[in-house]
Amino acid sequence: MSQVTLLSADFATRLGMKRLVLSVLAASLGVNVLLAATVLIKDEQVTTILVPMGLSEVGAPLKISDASISKHYLTLVARDLLTLAMNQTPENTDFNRKKLLDYALPSTFSELDEALKIRSDRLKRLRASTFFAIDSMSVDEKSLLLTVDGYLLHYIGKKETARQKTRVTLALEPIAGRLFLKALTVESINRHD
């Protein structure tokens, strides 16, 4: 009987090991099926961070705080707002006006919208285009006032019809960490060459 008991114990051990291995394999197969299903069902989204032109050349970091906003950041904002406000064709004037109004301070929205509509209608009626060539820019970081001098070029078709020395003043206001356009004034500068 001792041999039979020994054989039964050995057989039981082998059978137990076999069940353990099969159980581990079944659990592993189940986990793999769940992982494969997760990979197939998951909608993979790729995020691409775009660095605006000009930012890659910045030596110092752009800083925005409650106390101040970096001069270089204000210069980049002014460049983009000026492009929308001053570089106009009959075809893009409505688009530029709407995009510029996205940055308008809510309290000055209607005033700015009205001025831009008048300018837009005039450009369409004349089939004219304007382009602003920046000559110099003055940035007051404390008051968030940017004064930009340059030449406003007027075209009808491909022919330049006027070139005016022009000063554009942008007044900005921060609200909840975002800059808004408070005022935009355009004035001709008399030449004293």
Task: Kindly list the characteristics that best describe this protein.
193 residues, alpha+beta, four-stranded antiparallel sheet, 4 helices, 4 strands, elongated
The SSE string, one letter per element, is HHHHEEEE
Overall shape: it is elongated
Based on secondary structure, the structural category is alpha+beta
Strand content: 25-35%
Mean pLDDT: 83
Which percent bin holds the helix content?
A: 40-55%
**How do the strands of the widest beta sheet line up side by side?**
1-2-3-4
* Cα separation of the termini: 123 Å
Explain what this protein looks like in three dimensions.
This protein has helices at residues 2-41, 71-86, 93-101, 109-126, and strands spanning 128-140, 145-156, 159-175, 178-188. It has a four-stranded antiparallel sheet with strand order 1-2-3-4, covered by helices on one side. The model has no long low-confidence stretch (mean pLDDT 83). A hairpin with a 2-residue loop joins strand 3 and strand 4 (178-188). With 193 residues, it is α+β, with helices and mostly antiparallel strands. Helices cover 43% and strands 27% of the residues.
Write the layout of secondary structure elements.
Elements lengths: L1 H40 L29 H16 L6 H9 L7 H18 L1 E13 L4 E12 L2 E17 L2 E11 L5
Antiparallel strand pairs: 1-2, 2-3, 3-4
Helix pairs in contact: 2-3, 3-4
Summarize the structure.
The protein is of the alpha+beta class and 193 residues long.
